[in-house]
Amino acid sequence: MQRFPGHAATPMLRAPEVDDDANARAIALARLILDDEVTVQAPPNLSADVAPMLAAGVNDLGGISPLTPDFINRTYAWPHLDRLDADCAAAGFTLTRRLPIHEPWLRSEFVAPEVMPHLTARSAA
Question: For residue 64, is pLDDT > 60?
């Protein structure tokens, strides 16, 4: 689930933005419709509060980086990791790192052979 705030020079510039409640409802519907093994991802920098997204069933907050901006939504800074960790804990969840590929897809048909040893080493850790 990626909310898309309109940006200059995009066709969606004047489209109304999805509010936090509609975003949480979309996440909840995705969780109800999709198999439990399917990851529902939503970036925390596009919502005022991460708790409703977590309560709705999001189980991946995306590629959050303390070093780089959100390259898709440059005007929305990533939350500080300590704050995000505290917000997750307050909602009863634990913020953890993940690989750049989800475990079920950590297979040779999806990962280049020269990358696989690095990912499997990190996966075991």
Answer: yes
